[in-house]
């Protein structure tokens, strides 16, 4: 184990980790947005639109991110649509993440008993008020665990982006292995980088899950 | 059809080659799944034991698998093992090891929660009938768990099939690699081949995974009791 080599290349990893986190952050933010909108469409059963959303969810959940990226990065330029690797990464992550977030949100929305809506309405609240003050808070508290799992899943998925030439952690590790043949060191740093990024998030998520459990009934 | 790059798929045996590539992917997923189920069953039972050390070790294993991206695990096994221990395994072998490692943890966790969800009186009634601990597990508990787990296991299988697309990055010749070969071979004759080949691979994965998740959903409805 060559520790000098490790110390020397830490900045490279930090830079890559920043990029990874940036992409993950934007991608997750957008997928929450997409997921929320889609779950609303599915929940309110808007005709046509909800069928489109269902089709999107099936398509996105049943295809690997890597293939989606390849299609975006290598396939689409043949139609004259060239997207940078960063753009591909964000679009891919949003496309994949949106459907996972939608499932999480919808499960939360559907878990709120109908009585709740009815009681709200009978108290004289409007449809929007019922949704905003009665359904939404309960739905969000139930979907936190699934939501956290999705966030970790999506950050893990970013490792695939090295395949479309985005200089993320995986890409740096592959580069170092290729140039210096320091496989052990590069891989060790790679594992360490992912642990440093994901372990705190995972711990935070389990704390959050424990906190919101009190929001539900019967606990 | 002259201008359409789609014709590249029907030249020679290109389509058959893609299907053969897809079979490599499926084979890896199915073998790993087959290995993960018995190992996961053991792991799940281990996690339910009352010894703190065993529980702690299981927890670490589970968290590690959860946190590490599968691609990193693949690199660790494929390149790490070759460099550190001098073991030169094929990419396919490495993939099976990684997916089994991952699947065991996932299935183990599912089994642990299923074991907890089985009412206590089921165990007690078993003991009351004079069965040994082993017998209670084999004749009373496991049959009930398996029924609950089938849909979840199929879901995991879908995820595995999707994730096997990563093995192209450690040099296994599977559907994506075959696709690349076809694109490279027809670079001058059909420049738009990439669009069609990746499009077809996209649809192939969709069809297979959709089939499995559809089955899982159906079973989930049928097996409810």
TrEMBL record, chain A:
The keyword Cell membrane applies. It is found in: Cell membrane. The chain crosses the membrane at residues 23-44, 65-95, 130-153, 160-181, 187-208. Keywords: Amino-acid transport, Cell membrane, Membrane, Transmembrane, Transmembrane helix, Transport. GO terms for molecular function: transmembrane transporter activity. Residues 17-209 form the ABC transmembrane type-1 domain. GO terms for cellular component: ATP-binding cassette (ABC) transporter complex. It is a multi-pass membrane protein. Its main location: membrane. It holds the Pfam family BPD_transp_1. NCBIfam families: HEQRo_perm_3TM. Belongs to the binding-protein-dependent transport system permease family. HisMQ subfamily. This is Amino acid ABC transporter permease. It comes from Aminipila luticellarii.
TrEMBL record, chain B:
It is found in: Cell membrane. Residues 22-216 form the ABC transmembrane type-1 domain. Its main location: membrane. GO terms for cellular component: ATP-binding cassette (ABC) transporter complex. Signal peptide: none annotated. It comes from the Bacteria. It holds the Pfam family BPD_transp_1. The keyword Lyase does not apply. GO terms for biological process: amino acid transport. The keyword Transport applies. One of its GO terms (molecular function) is transmembrane transporter activity. Keywords: Cell membrane, Membrane, Transmembrane, Transmembrane helix, Transport. It is a multi-pass membrane protein. Gene3D superfamilies: MetI-like. The chain crosses the membrane at residues 20-48, 60-81, 93-115, 136-157, 195-216. Belongs to the binding-protein-dependent transport system permease family. This is Amino acid ABC transporter permease. It comes from Aminipila luticellarii. The lineage of its organism: Bacteria, Bacillati, Bacillota, Clostridia, Peptostreptococcales.
